[in-house]
Amino acid sequence: MSSNWASSPSGAVMKDKEKSLGEKEKDILRRYKMASHFEIPSGKGLFGQLQWVAFTYVCFIAYGHPDMKQLWAALRLEEEGDDSGWKEFVCGMTDRLHNVQVVGGLLLATSALFLTTVPPSPATIDYTHHGSYICIVSAFGLLIGSIICAVAAVLMLSQASAFQLRTSSQVWYRNRTCVYGTTIALAGPTFSAAPATILLAFGVHSKLNILNCFLTHGP
Questions:
Q1: Is residue 148 within 8 Å of 141, Cβ to Cβ?
Q2: Domain segments of the chain: what residues?
Q3: Is residue 65 within 8 Å of residue 88, measured between CB atoms?
Q4: Is the pLDDT of residue 85 over 90?
Q5: What is the Cα–Cα distance from 16 to 70, expressed in whole angstroms?
Q6: Which of 37, 78, 125, 130 has the fewest Cβ atoms within 10 angstroms?
Q7: Are 196 and 139 in contact (CB under 8 A)?
Q8: Using CA atoms, how far apart are residues 157 and 2, in angstroms rounded to an integer?
Q9: Nearest-angstrom CA–CA distance, 132 and 109
Q10: pLDDT digits (tens, 9 = 90+) for 159-215
Q11: In the beta sheet, which residues pair with residue 125?
């Protein structure tokens, strides 16, 4: 790992415990230069712009921020003996993952209901056709994966300390490829739940015959 993980530069001031967390993070970011692979891509050229969009989007889904400054500051604060930034980071991450678990669980129950029951009124809505079943089964599988990934991520974050994450960063955040891989893994539950929702909607509504129902049974 680069020297960015080394101890504080000479002449760095001691952290002020009276500062707010936001002020502490700003002070850390001013005193410690982020590793190059933690920074947002420059966005130069077409490929650079695509990298910038992909990086900011994945970071926003995974961390709730369009960059990795909060994670970097939390790790460096913990190195100086202040774990408030890490606790705040973990709290935000677990809250988002718990929300994904709740939504995923509701959608999973809904998809299981459609897979194991017959439509009450096939003339109005019929989700037993081949195409509908493929969409619903695909959504069911994606939702199971989303919930499993979310639970695993919550367990990992709740048990890991900032020190453990920082020491293992030589593997997780060693270079740009590892940063992308780790961030995508943390964003995986959301990435799975989003297309599952779309597939479930298509599976249920692909055979809607509401217009025909109104034309046939209307006044």
A1: no
A2: 20-217
A3: no
A4: no
A5: 18
A6: 130
A7: yes
A8: 24
A9: 17
A10: 776 566 666 555 677 788 888 888 888 899 999 999 999 988 888 775 544 334 444
A11: 208
The reported pLDDT for the residue numbered 81 is 76
Spatial separation of the C-alpha atoms in residues 65 and 183, rounded to whole Å: 12
Is pLDDT at 120 greater than 80 in this prediction?
Answer: no
Tokens of 194: 């989003």
Residue 138 tokens, joined: 């695909």
Most confident stretch, 80-94, 100-114, 175-189:
100-114
Place of tokens 């974050």: 157
Burial code of 125-158, b = ≥16 C-beta within 10 A, e = fewer? bbbeeeebeebbebbbebbebbbebbeebbeebe
Determine the residue type at 203.
G
For 194, the 3-state DSSP assignment is: helix
d(CA 39, CA 68): 7
pLDDT in tens, 25-61: 788 778 888 878 888 888 788 888 888 888 899 999 9
**H helices of the chain, where?**
21-31, 45-63, 69-79, 84-116, 130-159, 162-167, 169-172, 176-205, 210-217
Report the alpha-carbon distance of residue 26 to residue 70 in Å, rounded: 9
Q: Is the pTM of this model over 0.70?
A: yes
Query: Which DSSP symbol is given to 38?
Result: G
